[in-house]
Amino acid sequence: MTELNSHNAKARIEAMLGARGAPLAVVPVLQPAEPFLDTAGDELRRRIFMAQGTNGANMCLRPEFTIPVCLEHLATQQSSARYGYVGEVFRQARAEGIEFLQAGIEDIGDHDTIAADARAICDATDLLAELAPSATRTVTLGDQAIFDAVLRALDLPSGWRVRLADAFGDGEAMTQQLAALASPAQPPALPDHIASLAAKGDRDALAAAIAADMGKANLPLAGGRTALDIAKRLIAKHADASHAAAPERVAQLEAFLAIDVPLGDARSALAGFCDAADISIDGVIAQFSARMDALAAETDIATMRYAASFGRALDYYTGLVFEVRDDAGLVLVGGGRYDGLMEMLGADETIPGVGFSIWLDRLGEGA
Which uninterrupted H or E stretch holds 335? Predict the structure, then answer.
């Protein structure tokens, strides 16, 4: 057992969290599965250990702490609070082992999002420095909000904006979506009355026509799909084919995603991109700049970078995302802002949140 798995190490980490105003949140290992399945994204969903409760409810072993801590915050009905945690999480198909330790802080309800973002990054890097003082590391920042603003400013079709936003942070998926945006597949050859309804986007009428034609031909619907499912897919294919982006817009989006600069140079890089593309995203750049200034006032940003394409494989992130890697490229910390998550979990209003997790098992013996 490594030092970080020991009782003394856990107590030490709890003390560090408490010193930062983040008392320990205690959440059960066995969690309701639906919140993770509904909000966490495909990458995490595939790796959850599912179970069934005595009442038949779908349960799972805790795959991360953010969602359980948010549910705890909703249950306490506090306006704002900081929570620390240290404990085991469980994920399938993980090379280092299916059970491992994470520690972190969730900062929920603080409407000064600039200060909270900067504090999250500082807390993460400071805790790492205490736990592994000899390690060198690089911090990478991205921003989902900037990417979304660029998609709007480039006036891309709404359906493509959704697809590209979903692919943010996944290099392979983004490459595929950009290729499809530049050269969308043509819709299949269809009878005139079906093609006309698909082009109009009349989903209900198209579904009725598909069902009628299948019935006349005595053909079953394949793969359990309904006529409405088929109608939706045909309409989407027609929309894609008729809304190809102008080639210069695809090139501009690729130029944005290629931005990867020291954090201190990010403001000028974003301004230069906007000038070249003849677009304005002044609001989100101002937010980004304010965060950068708040961060620079608290810590040395020399080892930090901004990568426009950087995202994290959890669907609930809405703005800042960041990670810390060691010299070997191993992720030691991941975090970000999740202002929409609390409403997804049942809150009546938007509650801001930001947090991070440290992968303690990657810090090594004697850390």
Answer: strand 331-337
* CA dist., res. 287 & res. 298, Å (int): 17
Retrieve residue 201's tokens. Answer: 């986007």
d(CA 341, CA 169): 18
The string of pLDDT tens digits covering residues 198-234 is 777 777 888 888 888 776 765 555 544 677 778 777 7
Q: Look at residue 78 and give its three-state secondary structure.
A: coil
Q: What is the DSSP string of 32-52?
A: ESHHHHHHS-HHHHTT--EEE
Residue 307 phi, psi (nearest 5): -120, 115
What is residue 331's DSSP assignment?
E
DSSP 310-327: ---S-TT--SEEEEEEET
Give exposure, 82-109, as e/b (b: 16+ Cβ within 10 Å). Answer: bbbbbbebbbeeeeeeeebbbbbbbbbe
- For 56, the token pair is 């038949």
Let me know if 146 is exposed, middle or buried by CB neighbors in 10 A (0-12, 13-18, 19+).
buried
Strand partners, 337: 354
**pTM reported for the whole predicted model:** 0.81
